[in-house]
Amino acid sequence: ADLDAFITGLPKAELHLHIEGSLEPEQMFAFAKRNGVVIPFDSVEDIRAAYSFSRLQDFLDIYYQGAAVLQTEQDFRDLAYAYFTRAHADAVRHAEIFFDPQTHTDRGIAFETVARGLFAGMDDAQRDFGITSRLILCFLRHLDEEAAFATLAQAKPWLDRIAGVGLDSGEIGNPPSKFARVFAAAADQGLRRVAHAGEEGPPAYVTEALDLLGIDRLDHGNRALEDPALVDRLARAGMTLTVCPLSNLKLCVVNDMAAHPIPRMLALGLKATINSDDPAYFGGYVNDNYRALAASTSLGRADFATLARNSFTGSFLPPEEIARHL
Ligand code: ES4
Ligand code: ZN
């Protein structure tokens, strides 16, 4: 209980949060109703009951379906603002937020609608809560390189508020190499690079993300632990890993929270951070993720302070802003 109170008030940054994954069932119902979108659920309980997954793809199918209720700029503003309201309660001071433009543009929602709405929510959160934030544009890796290039082109007018590009969706069979050229183009435009790797995919995908995408941060990275030479490389490079404990449990990346790799990552000298990934689907926001580890592992105050500190030093904030948070 003492440790829970410490975690609650610990200032933190969130570095791995898909805004579409913060769509709560109640909100899904409300947006469906106000937009006249039919969803295949009769109640909030019905939706929650569908959130049982054996692997990443089970989740992705439901997650892309849920996103269909998002139609207007107001929807995206409200979605972002609801996330920040939760984040503020969890002492989040800064967030670098993933969004999946292709999920929306492929069903006829303009990139501009998504961007304007999210930026409005971000501006309102900075005004009301003092939370700073940037967006990270994720390419859907199950789609092709050409579609990723088209998405990068659509982002051009908004690059001043987009910190970087990322890579998400189904990992197996869609290795980082598929997006080497689009990541090089993003780098040329001054964007930072991150990628989901080693969540379900093998350690070789993490190596590709380093060598072929030039990533500044590694999203998940769990399976890197299978390769000692890769662990050594990540530790020496000071690479930040954005790890998501409740997501790992829900998607069966780990079988038991007591066996979660975060304690091992810290012991190996890896710069791990704790994040919520898709909180509406995985059972909790960032403090729930910290608390789940507190309840099931021997991590203590000093470890959680290190993990929170890593979230700022691993962020894309300028050095003087990072210093202000430490
Ligand atoms: C995701 Cl947990 C996870 N992995 C890959 N892609 C994603 N998109 C949203 N959540
Ligand atoms: Zn993720």
UniProtKB/TrEMBL annotation:
GO annotations of cellular component type: cytosol
Entry EC number(s): 3.5.4.2
Cofactor, free-text remark: Binds 1 zinc ion per subunit.
Reactions catalysed: adenine + H2O + H(+) = hypoxanthine + NH4(+)
Organism domain of life: Bacteria
Active site residues per record: 199 (proton donor)
InterPro entries in the record: A_deaminase_dom, ADE, Ado/ade_deaminase, Metal_Hydrolase
Cofactor: Zn(2+)
Transmembrane segments: none
Keyword annotations of the record: Hydrolase, Metal-binding, Nucleotide metabolism, Zinc
Gene3D superfamilies: Metal-dependent hydrolases
Signal peptide range: none
GO molecular function terms attached to this record: adenine deaminase activity; zinc ion binding
Domain Adenosine deaminase: 11-323
Chain positions recorded as substrate binding sites: 278
Residues with site note (Important for catalytic activity): 220
Residues at which Zn(2+) binds: 16, 18, 196, 277
GO biological process assignments: adenine catabolic process; hypoxanthine salvage; nucleotide metabolic process
Cited PANTHER family: ADENINE DEAMINASE
Protein's job: Catalyzes the hydrolytic deamination of adenine to hypoxanthine. Plays an important role in the purine salvage pathway and in nitrogen catabolism.
Sequence similarity: Belongs to the metallo-dependent hydrolases superfamily. Adenosine and AMP deaminases family. Adenine deaminase type 2 subfamily.
NCBIfam families given in the database record: aden_deam, PRK09358.1-6
Protein name: Adenine deaminase
Organism phylogeny: Bacteria, Pseudomonadati, Pseudomonadota, Alphaproteobacteria, Sphingomonadales
